């Protein structure tokens, strides 16, 4: 079949998009069309139009990597000086990448076609089930309900599982993602260190410090303003940096990757979340036990991390005090005990279909009971229940056991299926990395609510990348097939 020619939009498409954007702004944020905002908006639209035209010509992987990088600021664009901005740059770039892929933009030329598999159909069924659940209880029309469907459940990340095998099909595209994650790891790890031990003046953007001061102790929340998300992102970027250290050939960049592994490990620790610490240990242990070549590095890596973290605690007593305070704080334990008891009562009350998507905070107050062994906690200052600190229980409460099992089956099928899928040798480090972050995600889900989209986006993009099609083997003669090099090649391709 002949390859379809790349499509370039006619000149009038971009002005039409600009007019549609102005109409949307007039509907959602009309104040941007008055005063000094009008000049700012006109300049921004011109810049965005030129950027979109340039991105249409670039590889889709470049646009996707930019979207992933900007996702760290998702939900905080107002704090960056864009109050009321009706668009989210990270999501716009995701849409542009998807359109470029579907319409066969010049940047998508030569990429393989999208393949729909059984796991994608199961994910679509899970999303449709959650939409029906939200519609039944009236949360589908709320902003929180919609964004939770997109991010917390993972409708957008589910889409990444479908397109990532195409977008990151080649070594060049995968190296783009690797460089992006290494750069993010450097920023997130260094920012976490600046947040917790200083100098605080170097923390950027400044809104991060305001979020840090709101807590009882200084935990590294990074641009997410959430220590749990910061810990997951630092760990994932640290895994990517470890892959870069193995794959990159230039000594200077290998040193950079090694440094990012170190600062990412410190950033993960500086989140000061016990669930993050346990999940990180489980993820590294799982990858090390599965890969024979990594087993001999487990003990040295543990010793290096212990020395690195121990030395940091000795040099910075304030961090040591905060870490001890967090480790000894019983309030989070009481929160989880109260929430777990309430969640189990709710599941017993409506086991099959639950109370409706994103409806826990509205209906759970009646299921809390005072315990004789610990105080009643698990609420915000306004007596509103905090998010349920167990992703599995949260899905079971809101979607019922049917919806929770659909989500869990989708997760296990996607991650385990991608990890066990036969692959080319250059994908093997990525598969071991998927084991590490997949186990991290599954363990962390027992302890904390995974509500921000970067956690789901990284996991499902990584799983999709590992589902890339294996290149066909060259047809060899019988004699060549028996040669040692051919035997080793088949062993590497079939390695999991």
Give a verbal description of the structure.
By secondary structure, the protein is mainly alpha-helical. It folds into two domains: 13-108, no CATH class; 118-330 and 388-465, no CATH class. The chain is built from 21 helices and no strands. α3 (60-70) packs parallel to α8 (171-197), α6 runs parallel beside α19 and α10 runs antiparallel to α11. The longest helix is centred in the last third of the chain and has 30 residues, at 391-420. Mean pLDDT is 82; it is low at 472-496.
Write out key terms for the chains shown:
single chain, 496 residues, mainly alpha, 2 domains, 21 helices, 67% helix, globular, disordered C terminus
Number of DSSP E strands: 0
Strand content: under 5%
Dominant shape = globular
Give the count of structural domains: 2
- Going by helix content, strand content and strand pairing, the class is mainly alpha
Q: Helix fraction?
A: 55-70%
Radius of gyration: 24 Å
- DSSP helical segment count: 21
Low-confidence stretches: 472-496
What number is the mean pLDDT? Answer: 82
C-alpha end-to-end distance? 32 Å
């Amino acid at each position: 079949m002949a390859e379809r020619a790349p499509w370039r939009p006619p000149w009038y498409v971009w002005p039409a998009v600009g007019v549609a954007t102005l109409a949307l702004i007039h509907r959602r944020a009309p104040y941007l069309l008055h005063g000094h905002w009008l000049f700012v908006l006109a300049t921004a639209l011109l810049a965005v139009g030129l950027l979109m035209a340039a991105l249409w010509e670039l590889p889709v992987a470049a646009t996707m990597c930019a979207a992933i990088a900007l996702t760290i600021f998702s939900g905080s664009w107002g704090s960056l000086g864009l109050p009321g901005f009706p668009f989210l740059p990270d999501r716009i770039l995701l849409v542009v990448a998807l359109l470029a892929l579907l319409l066969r933009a010049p940047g998508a030329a030569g990429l393989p076609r999208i393949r729909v598999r059984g796991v994608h159909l199961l994910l679509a069924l899970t999303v449709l089930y959650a939409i029906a659940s939200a519609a039944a209880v009236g949360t589908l029309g709320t902003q929180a309900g919609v964004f939770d469907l997109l991010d917390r459940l993972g409708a957008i990340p589910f889409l990444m599982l479908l397109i990532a095998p195409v977008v990151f099909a080649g070594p060049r595209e995968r190296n783009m993602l690797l460089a992006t994650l290494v750069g993010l790891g450097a920023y997130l790890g260094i920012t976490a260190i600046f947040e917790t031990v200083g100098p605080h003046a170097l923390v950027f953007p400044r809104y991060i410090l305001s979020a840090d001061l709101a807590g009882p102790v200084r935990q590294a929340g990074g641009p997410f303003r959430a220590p749990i998300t910061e810990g997951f992102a630092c760990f994932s970027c640290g895994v990517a940096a470890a892959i870069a250290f193995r794959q990159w050939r230039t000594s200077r960049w290998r040193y950079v990757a090694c440094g990012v592994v170190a600062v990412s490990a410190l950033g993960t620790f500086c989140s000061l979340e016990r669930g993050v610490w346990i999940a990180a240990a489980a993820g590294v242990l799982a990858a090390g036990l599965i890969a024979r070549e990594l087993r001999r590095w487990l003990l040295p890596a543990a010793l290096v991390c212990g020395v690195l973290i121990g030395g940091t605690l000795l040099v910075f007593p304030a961090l040591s005090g905060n870490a001890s305070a967090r480790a000894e704080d019983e309030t989070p334990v009481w929160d989880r005990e109260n929430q777990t008891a309430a969640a189990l009562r709710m599941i017993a009350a409506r086991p099959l279909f639950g109370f409706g998507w994103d409806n826990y905070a509205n209906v759970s107050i009646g299921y809390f009971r005072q315990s004789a062994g610990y105080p009643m906690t698990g609420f915000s200052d306004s007596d509103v229940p905090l998010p349920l600190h167990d992703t599995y229980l949260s899905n079971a409460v809101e979607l019922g056991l049917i919806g929770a099992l659909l989500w869990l089956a989708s997760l296990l099928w996607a991650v385990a299926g991608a990890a066990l899928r036969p692959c080319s040798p250059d994908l093997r480090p990525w598969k071991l990395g998927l084991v590490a972050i997949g186990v991290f995600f599954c363990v962390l889900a027992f302890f904390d609510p995974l509500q921000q989209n970067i956690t789901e986006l990284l996991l499902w993009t990584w799983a999709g990348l590992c589902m890339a099609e294996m290149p066909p083997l060259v047809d060899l003669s019988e004699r060549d097939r028996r040669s040692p090099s051919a035997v080793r090649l088949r062993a590497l391709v079939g390695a999991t």
